[in-house]
Amino acid sequence: MIASLSKLALVGLFTATMTSAAAPIRNIMYLTGQHPFVPDSTTSSPITHVAMAFMSPSFFNRKEGSSSEWPLFMPVDEARSKFSPGTKVLVAIGGWGDSAGFDTGAYSDESRATFARNVAAMVEDTGADGVDIDWEYPGGNGEDWKKIPNEARAWQVAAYPKFLAEIRSALGPDKIMSAAVPGLPHDMIAFTPETVPQIMESLDFLNVMAYDLMNRRDNVTKHHTGIEASLTAVRAYIDNGAEPDKVNLGFAFYAKYFRTEHEPCVDNPIGCPTGLLEDPVTGEDLGRAGAFAWRDEVPYEVQASFERARTKGKYDQRGGGWYYWDEEESIWWTYDTPEVVAKKFPLIMEQENLGGVFAWGLGEDAPKWAHLRALNAGVRRLASSKEEL
Questions:
Q1: Is residue 286 in a domain?
Q2: Domains: count for the chain
Q3: Which residues are paired to 359 by β-bridges?
Q4: Which of 124, 178, 292, 308 has a CA between 20 and 30 Å from the CA of residue 159?
Q5: Cα–Cα dist 5/9, whole Å
Q6: Could you give the CA distance from residue 85 to residue 344 in angstroms, rounded to a whole number?
Q7: Is 274 domain-assigned?
Q8: 258 occurs within a structural domain
Q9: Rounded mean pLDDT, 90-107
Q10: pLDDT of residue 43
Q11: pTM of the model
């Protein structure tokens, strides 16, 4: 085979191989309006990209030129000044529960063109380096899945790649464009073997949300960001056509808890029943689950339980997650420790040859920055090992 390749082809193959091997590991942080905190320069310097979250998609459906106001919790230039020179700053559009603007914008050729031109205008006006499209559940299974059935959104499966392509065309090739995508296979409705290659033509990289893998739609306990489930998530996109070096693994800088039944959990709390967490008719939260960032104050009603989790928690070798079941209050705790963050590099990043990591979110890990430091250390080790190849 090598003998049949032209000299030009060989040069191209060699260059592509070297470029891929030398490509830096992306280290992306969502900077949120809820927790707009940034660590000192030593701790923040390994960050390569910052995605400012969020701007509502509804702003991009308005008549073009009607306004040059693009509301963010801080100006892009101010955010840029908080990080090392060369750090790319993106504007994240959308987020959990804010999909109506996408529904409108993706609906037709005309609406897609309007949305895309407005995105390009926003990037130009704000000075951002690009955008992250955070339409988390195209095709269905979003926050309002009980109110609007998935069948009513089936059209979005074909529209989503066209929507991204229109935005890419408006932005041009030099701006960065990424997308945040679901981590549970049953939520990957719009990400099929037919659509993923089309989707990747428009994107520089894909942020796979390998967290919230247990949520209020579940009825048994599991890890919300475990290694086994995270591997399943990234492999689903790769198997459907995403290049591994364009896939970023998501990390959660927050803890989750769920109230469970008692007797069935005593002998084995992993996979034991939680009882009903979500209203089966409306989809509303029934108040039996919760989450908080490391920056937040622990909710009063679970403070004692969380202290037990911190001192008695353990690592599940099979599922690859840190957990604790509080027998006193029948509460299941699931979150990453810095040690679990470190484990994900050899077991997921290296094994699958992924191109980067991201976390929700940067300020959520303040003020100790323990998870961020573990993430930075993993990126450094991975980059060093690739340089040695």
A1: no
A2: 1
A3: 29, 251
A4: 124
A5: 6
A6: 28
A7: no
A8: no
A9: 94
A10: 98
A11: 0.93
